[in-house]
Amino acid sequence: MLLGYNTNLSYKEMVFHIQTEDGGIKNPLVITHLYYKGAILASKKTSYADILSITDFQETVREIMEKQHKSMIKAVLMGRFDNIMDKLLSKDNASASNDEQPSNDMHVRHNNIVLKVNENKHKQQAKKTMDEILLEHITKRKSETDR
Question: The whole model's pTM is what?
């Protein structure tokens, strides 16, 4: 069993948690969950039972885990769950006083890197991979701090 991935994602004024884990040899599944306030909003399961006989199957499992985890992050950023999130946001706003202006920014924390991306721009980035989005942001932040 391999250690999993965990990412906290602030998007549309809500904090989500994405968790990817390995079920191990007895349960050869890579499972990724998207959580909001402890409730699972979405899940993705990938079986790797067919590769257990390969000598170095753990490296392949690690690649599956990483790809699946990034895929869930990208799905959130590309608006795949916006209908669900909008319903959650309207419920949260109805139960709290809302004196502050909503932000058009979303913040992504991935491996202790905080990204601030304008929500309207995420649709323009739909063809980019998560790695490309992260690299672009890191490069931009570095050039800003070098000034």
Answer: 0.62
